[in-house]
Amino acid sequence: MNEHAGLRAGVDAAVAARPVHILVNNTGGPPGGPVHTAALDDFRIAFNQHIMAAQIVLQAVLPGMREAGYGRIVNVISTSVKEPIRNLGVSNTIRGAMASWAKTLATELGPFGITVNNVLPGYTKTARLDQILADRAKATGKTEDEIAKTMLATVPLGRFAESAEIANVIAFLATPAAGYVNGINVPVDGGRTQSL
Question: Core-most of 20, 88, 141, 176, by most CB within 10 Å?
Answer without folding.
Answer: 88
